[in-house]
Specification:
Layout lengths: L2 H35 L4 H21 L20 H16 L14 H14 L3 H14 L14 H28 L3 H6 L1 H25 L19 H12 L6 H11 L12 H20 L10 H8 L3 H12 L3 H19 L1 H4 L3 H7 L5 H12 L3 H7 L4
Helix pairs in contact: 1-2, 1-9, 2-3, 3-6, 6-8, 8-9, 11-13, 12-13, 14-17, 16-17
Length: 401
């Protein structure tokens, strides 16, 4: 290989390395904080925290490779406790999608106990003299490993910590796969077809997480020669899961929009909801049926495109009292009737703009009239109230332009 080729190869590797460590971590943080801060389903928040912790992992990994840790010794082992967060956050994200009726309790905090304990045992090391850190780093270089070397930091030996991390990631990955498989097996093919968008995402995510787990095990046991001390393309295999979810959210950001995601999750769990205290189970069963009939009506006959649509008309089409329709929408979707109808109108415009270039050229006035809002102001008010942004920014962020 010539010197010019070597230079080109080196430049390409540096570019990929910086994109991997900084661009991807930045995307993870942007999506993560957006999901955590937005008003929506609990599952979105766990996915948000998952993105944030993975972003921290990638960012700090840059300072642990190619000898840079000698320049930033204070960052040594700062990342270590975070490995006990990836498994619980990914599992809780899946759990709250499949069982949204179950609320977060204090007992769920036990999922994060290993993270707290490991961070606590390393605190004396973190705030100790830099000489101790440099000595540990020299042990890493000598052993050419970050998972099996002579360490005097903390209480638990590094080899045991590495095994515990592997058990955490593996245990939660397997538990997630079992939870998803059990959920799918309990439902019919028709149910799968109705909810294939979110189910295919979860199946693909579980599969990729399992592949990532195999790569992590191969690295930890020395079967594959990953080298954390230098950047390696093979390292990407251990982060397939986070990368996949970033791509999904980037390509389909509307999937996790508050009202629509909540609606999607509740459709997925029509038979799983538990009555709230003081509520009548028979009435709640009626609400579930009303919501299913309502969605079917909107799918079969796009009456939401009528700007004069009122709740009384929809109730008449469903042959139910207006009060029952209002209660069903409030309970199932957490929205008022106008906001619920507007989510369908906005999603209709999103899909039209994605599938038809002509629609992307329409002005907001034309879009508002075509989508059933009647006026540009009606469209603006709806996007501001539901998504806290303007129509133009919302459409742009959803990948139509």
């Amino acid at each position: 290989m010539t010197a010019k080729q070597n230079k080109t190869t080196s430049q390409l590797q540096y570019t990929i390395e910086y994109v991997y460590y900084f661009a991807l971590s930045t995307l993870l943080w942007i999506f993560g904080f957006n999901l955590v801060l937005r008003k929506g389903h609990a599952a979105t928040k766990f996915l948000g925290f998952y993105f944030i912790t993975f972003g921290v992992r990638l960012f700090l990994s840059f300072y642990a490779t190619d000898g840079r840790i000698l320049e930033y010794p204070h960052l040594f082992r700062v990342l270590s406790p975070f490995h006990f967060l990836f498994g619980p956050l990914a599992f809780l994200f899946l759990r709250y999608i499949l069982t949204p009726n179950k609320k977060f309790t204090r007992w769920h905090c036990l999922h994060f106990l290993p993270f707290v304990l490991h961070a606590a045992e390393l605190m004396p090391f973190y705030f100790g003299p830099v000489e101790n850190k440099l000595e540990e780093i020299q042990q890493v270089f000598q052993a050419q490993s970050l998972v099996n070397y002579v360490s005097h930091a903390g209480i638990v030996p590094i080899k045991i910590i590495s095994l515990l991390k592997l058990a955490s990631v593996g245990g939660y990955a397997i538990a997630g796969i079992i939870l998803l498989a059990k959920f799918i097996s309990q439902n019919s093919k028709a149910f799968y077809q109705k909810n294939k968008l979110i189910l295919n995402w979860l199946i693909a995510d579980a599969t990729i997480r399992f592949v990532s787990l195999i790569c992590v095990i191969a690295y930890a046991t020395g079967k594959i020669s990953f080298n954390n001390l230098n950047f390696s393309y093979a390292d990407l295999l251990m982060h397939l899961d986070a990368t996949f979810n970033v791509i999904v959210v980037f390509l389909y950001p509307y999937l996790l929009d508050g009202p629509q995601f909540t609606s999607l999750v509740h459709r997925l769990n029509e038979g799983e909801r538990i009555p709230e205290a003081g509520e009548n189970p028979q009435k709640l069963q009626k609400y579930r049926q009303i919501s299913a009939n309502l969605e079917q009506l909107l799918e079969d006959d796009a009456i939401f495109l009528n700007p004069q649509l009122v709740q009384e008309h929809v109730a008449n089409r469903l042959q139910i009292p207006v009060r029952e329709l209002s209660r069903a929408i409030s309970y199932v979707y957490g929205l008022s009737f106008p906001d619920f109808i507007n989510t369908w109108r906005i999603q209709y415009l999103v899909e039209k703009r994605k599938s038809n270039e002509v629609w992307r050229a329409y002005s907001l006035e034309v879009l508002a009239e075509s989508g059933g809002f009647g006026s540009r102001q009606g469209l603006s008010n709806a996007t501001n109230r539901l998504y806290q942004t303007s129509p133009g920014k919302y459409f742009s962020s959803n990948g139509e332009e």
